Amino acid sequence: MAKRLALQIGWRFWRGRNNNGFVSFISLSSVVGIALGVAVLIVVLSAMNGFERELKDRLLAVVPHGEFIAGDGALQDWQGLAAAAMAAPEVVAAAPVVPIQGLLQRGNEMKPVQLRGIDIGLEDKVSAVHQFVDSQGWKSLASGDANVVLGGGLAKMLNAKVGDRVSLLVPSSDGRQGPKRQVLTVTGLFELGGEIDRALAFTSLNTAMSIAGLSNPNGVRIKLDNLFEAPAVVRKIGFAQNEYLILQDWTRTQGHLYSDIQLVRMLTYLVLVLVVAVASFNIICSLVMAVRDKQHEIAILRTMGMSRSGILTGFVVQGALIGAIGCLLGALLGSLLAWRLPQLVAWLEQQFGVTVLSGDVYFIDFLPSQLHATDVAMVTIIAFVVTVIATLYPAWQASRMQPASVL
Question: What percentage of residues in the chain have a pLDDT greater than 90?
Fold first, then answer.
């Protein structure tokens, strides 16, 4: 009965009008501050989720999870290496590759390129790059012709389009002769966005072996069921081989992007606590002023027999209601903004002529978003707990008030 009475009094204190309008203003600013803090943090976390999704589905769908490159020349038995890799339960698929570093030239334009010689029948199992190329252009790599599929950014820098010819310049094997030149026909383009588009190209396995002067592929790339196990799995497989191999995995080439995303996510939770803590100071101020404004009511309740714990509970309920309204409004606003964030940012870019994400700097040129219910719930709960903690001091001060000194 006493607890129910305390809850009712807290509800009446929150609904009732304050004699001091400034108290009402501070209470309203508390609600707005908490709502904005929760909304912004939900939007930021959704953006981080979007970046992580694009990193996995777009960038790491093309970048191999792991690679084994021969230290010198071609692999003696690439089929045996691929079979050994497939024997590992973590490996989903394996495919041969011939990596070539060189320069692509068309007219007066010359750009560096990472050319990959692949077998499209096996490459489709370890990479999703075929999803970003038209089927005809991708299938052209199965012919014996010297064809190449360029990244969209690289093709733009070379002013090349499908059907054009480009020259590939690679160093000679002995280093004493001039660079070797190979003319390739552009048969397709892939659009991923970011730096991969401006540096990567694909050709057939036979063409790449001919350019590199190899009789066998000099590399094997693998795809894992769990890409986060790549470093351990690559080392386990590589150390078991008799050949000298250069071991590579995606954490060496693209791991900094994932680390940056996780760092921002961790900092976001820290900012959550700080932002809500700042907004909670308004709750403390409003409750302290409410205690002074309602000291006569408190004194009357005390003389009527209400306990100190009842007074404390009443003001905690009043502050918790302020925090709950702010958290719920923030969760609703943040969810709506996160849901339409890509469209909203695209509209702002169009209206103001600005670029939020540049493909020259980031691996994508748009702002992604993925809303998770767990993030919304966690942000809302943490914000509400902080606001409830902020109510304890003024509520304790109210419970310590002496009725005789007021009346």
Answer: 12
- The token pair at 137 is 């252009």
Judgement on whether residues 96 and 208 belong to the same structural domain of the protein = yes
Domain boundary among 214, 230, 253: 253
Query: Does one domain contain both 199 and 239?
Result: yes
Residue 140 CA to residue 186 CA, distance in Å, equals 10
- The tally of domains found in the chain comes to 2
pLDDT single digits (tens) 152-207: 888 888 998 888 999 999 887 665 666 788 899 999 898 876 677 888 899 999 88
Q: Which residue range is the domain that position 140 belongs to?
A: 61-253
SS3 157: helix
CA dist 153 → 135, 198, 201, 325, 353 (Å)? 19, 4, 11, 48, 21
H or E segment and range at residue 132: none
How is the chain split among helix, strand and coil, in percent rounded to 5? Answer: 60, 15, 25
C-alpha separations of 261 from 54, 55, 267, 407 in Å: 11, 10, 10, 59
Among residues 254, 182, 253, 242, the alpha carbon closest in space to that of 212 is found at: 182
Shared domain check, 265 and 400: yes
Q: Are residues 23 and 95 in the same domain?
A: no
The reply to whether 207 and 319 lie within a common domain is no
Q: Where are the alpha helices (DSSP H) in 340-372?
A: 341-352
